[in-house]
Amino acid sequence: MMAFERERQRMVEEQIMGRGISDERVLKAMRTVPRHEFLPEAIRGNAYVDQALPLGEGQTMSQPYMVALMTELLKLSGTERVLEIGTGSGYQAAVLAELCEKVYTVERIKVLADKARATLDRLGYRSVALKVYDGTYGWKEMSPFDAIVVTAGAPHVPDALVEQLREGGRMVIPVGDRYGQRLIKMVKTAGGVITEQSVPCVFVPLIGNHGWKE
Ligand code: SAH
Question: Bridge partners of 61?
Answer without folding.
Answer: 53
